[in-house]
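Technical appendix A lists one of the benchmark inputs used to test multi-chain prediction within the project. The record comprises two sequence entries:
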Amino acid sequence: MLTIGKLAQAGDISVDALRYYEHEGLIVPAAKTDSGYRLYGEDAVRRIRFIQHAQACGFTLAEIRELLHLRQSDSACCNDVRQRAIEKKLQLAAKIRAMQVMSAALDRLIAECADGEQSVDDCPILAALEQVDDDRERAP
Amino acid sequence: MKVELFYAPGCTKCTAAKADLQAAAEMAATGVEWCEINVLDSVDRAVELGVLTLPALAIDGQLVFTTLPTPSQLATELRRRRGVQAHGA
């Protein structure tokens, strides 16, 4: 059995992060000592690795909790997991597209500000950001 | 009218429902173009329409159902759109 400190060391993670995982229902101590210290089984290290890998793929902690449930569910199959991975890919692709739009908007603003020596009062970027959007103003 | 059904390969509920949905769509409106799209082959198109969960169904380039509709829900929506088109013409 591992104390929270040993588990943190084995999983290369902070004790605070482990407590947060526990608060979010992602890990559960296998036992507690007489003095109330949490003790974790060896499988907790594998679980921590699973959580870290899933986070690296963009899954939120709530989604990781679902994946962990699926892993333990007798009625779930690989396609259930695959579906979630595909949906995550779609969400990431949508975010990438939104960021590309933001990046293009910044490109336009940067191109408008050719003379960086102007006073801030004449800064075309600030002026463009301040510009009233007619369509939005008209909206109720 | 163009109906696009976005699905993930291996989705058993999609496989089971596709034929009924297509039949309902073709009964509800004439000239329906029915497209089944494996989202892994068309991620850009799915993102363009705002598809974030699967299965999803778009009509005339607009995401209308973010979960699989029943055949009757799809038929109702297609008839409503056909009515709007006819009224606007």
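Chain A touches chain B at residues 78-79, 82-83, 86-87, 89-91, 93-94, 97 (CB under 8 Å). The beta strands of chain A are 2-3, 31-32, 38-40. Comparable benchmark entries are summarised in Table A2.
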